[in-house]
Design a protein that fits this description.
The complex is a heterodimer of chains A (167) and B (178).
Chain A (H helix, E strand, L loop, with lengths): L11 E2 L2 E16 L3 H10 L1 H4 L4 E6 L4 E9 L3 H15 L2 E14 L9 H11 L6 E5 L2 E7 L3 H11 E2 L5
Chain B lengths: L11 E2 L2 E4 L3 E8 L6 H11 L6 E5 L6 E8 L3 H8 L8 E14 L5 H13 L6 E4 L4 E6 L3 H8 L3 E2 L19
Parallel strand pairs in B: 1-9
Antiparallel strand pairs in B: 2-6, 3-5, 3-6, 4-5, 6-8, 7-8
Classes of the chains: A alpha+beta (167), B alpha+beta (178).
Chain lengths: 167, 178
């Protein structure tokens, strides 16, 4: 079966562009062999941290992975304490950063269309906005940016994309 | 502080599991945090109309930038020719030729579900080449040939609706023009 979708648009339409502020990041560099332990560590955060905002993971090298976990800054003390305890057991390294902001945009068939993430990265590069972490999966693009950057960054994205209010 | 090591958990209800088509996974590392190679590469990929169904980028720490992304296997030769350009030749590049993305939804921002997924991959020594959450799902890239086994193992910790959709999509979409 062949399905053809054609988008005729000078600007890409998105469903929404939203941001959240006051987030913390835990970066965990852990040995791949400790992946099972990491699962337990994450479950251990359920009661004290309650929810994550964004999680990404990739390989650092053939024996080491890194996970970036973004969550509500008000839970930082609890989250860090817990994670450092687990990191010791996993022989992992924890680095914590606070005062971060997260922008997310999602739109129709983003995962099947070329050039969407380029629009975002180019716009941010032109305006010197640093992307700390980006996670693009499915129809969503998540962008973690430094403190007090989400509002101007969102303004820039609103010029690059068409959002429902202006359709 | 006491850490609870093991607690029997009931299966977590999820809405579904989805597999991607076969993809090629490309990881790039740049030793300086202030480098625009990834921006340039994304621009070139867009110009060639090469879609990126998954991307994970980080310039947080270690004074380096790490990016990984997936393209369809048919698009990989085009990506490779771009990577062979001199401006990218000093990037540390790693390619996994046949990966598949397994997507579980919804995640409901739950550490319990996230932890169970990661624990399952670890327990069965299944590689996670990269992972990212989206607004409602968790997407993990692993060996394409392992997708069925991963789904089977994940059903040990999650429960699917009775009439869930097939894991493999029966069609795929491709953007031709804009």
């Amino acid at each position: 079966m062949e399905t053809i979708a054609v988008y005729w648009e000078s600007k890409v339409k998105v469903y929404s562009i939203t941001h959240v502020t006051d987030l913390s990041l835990i970066n965990l560099a852990f040995p791949i062999k400790a992946t099972e332990e990491l699962g337990k560590a994450l479950m251990d955060l359920e009661d004290s941290v309650q929810r994550f905002e964004l999680v990404t993971q990739d390989y650092v090298n053939s024996t080491l992975c890194q996970m970036n976990l973004f969550y509500d800054q008000s839970k930082q003390e609890n989250a860090e304490k817990r994670m450092r305890k687990w990191a010791e057991k996993m022989q992992a390294t924890v680095t914590s950063v606070s005062h971060l902001e997260l922008i997310y945009l999602h739109g129709p068939h983003f995962q099947e269309r070329f050039g969407i993430v380029d629009i975002v990265f180019s716009a941010f590069k032109d305006d010197n906005i640093k992307i700390i972490t980006a996670g693009c999966a499915g129809t969503t693009i998540y962008l973690a940016v430094p403190d007090k950057t989400a509002v101007p960054a969102t303004r820039i994205l609103r010029q690059k994309f068409i959002i429902p209010a202006t359709v | 502080m006491e850490i609870v090591l093991s607690k029997e958990s009931p299966k977590i209800s999820i809405g579904g599991i989805k597999f991607s088509e076969k993809l090629t996974h490309i990881s790039l590392v740049k030793d300086t945090a202030e480098d625009s190679s990834i921006d340039d590469l994304l621009r070139l990929l867009a110009k060639r109309r090469i879609n990126i169904p998954f991307l994970c980028h980080s310039s947080t720490l270690y004074a380096s930038q790490r990016s990984c992304f997936c393209v369809s296997c048919e698009n990989f030769p085009g990506v490779l020719s771009l990577l062979n350009f001199s401006s990218f030749s000093n990037l540390n590049i790693k390619v996994v030729p046949a990966v598949g993305t397994i997507t579980l939804f919804p995640h409901k921002n739950s550490f319990q579900l996230l932890g169970q997924i990661i624990q399952t991959f670890g327990k069965f020594n299944i590689p996670i080449y990269s992972m990212s959450s989206s607004i409602s799902a968790i997407a993990l890239n692993t060996d394409f040939t392992s997708l069925d086994m991963v789904a089977e193992n994940l059903q040990g910790v999650t429960s699917l609706p009775e009439n869930h959709a097939p894991f493999r999509q029966e069609f795929c979409l491709k953007e031709l023009h804009r």
